[in-house]
Design brief:
The chain is mainly beta. Helix content is about 0%, strand content about 55%. Strand 2 and strand 3 form a beta hairpin. It is globular, with a radius of gyration of 13 Å.
Length: about 110
């Protein structure tokens, strides 16, 4: 389970052990992390083929590797002109929606 919150932190939990695996502090410049989603690519049966996309009020889209120490592997800091409220993925393509009334499509090239 991955969560994002108003304090800008992203947390990764193991539901079976009911414990926190790791946390990324201030993932969105001390601002809200509005939405997160899994980004899966390559063979679906490999755990290392999953990344996390997050968006926030700081107008940024960030891609994180949950298998490391939550390293940021890609980012777009001015992805929209206003707060980004939603993100979803389909294979290696991200879709983001913002208060600027736009939906953007991002090809990750994984």
């Amino acid at each position: 389970l991955i969560t994002g919150s108003k304090d800008g932190n992203i947390k990764h939990f193991d539901l079976l052990s009911k414990s926190e695996i790791r946390q990324k502090y201030q993932a969105h410049s001390k601002d809200w992390c509005n939405d997160i989603c899994w980004v899966e690519y390559g063979p679906k049966y490999l755990n290392e083929n999953s990344l996390i996309a997050s968006v926030g009020r700081d107008k940024a889209v960030r891609i994180w590797n949950p298998n490391s120490k939550f390293d940021c592997v890609a980012e777009r800091t001015s992805a929209h002109s206003s707060s980004i409220n939603s993100v979803c993925s389909y294979n290696d393509t991200l879709f983001t929606g913002s208060d600027d009334f736009n939906i953007h499509m991002w090809k990750l090239g994984l």
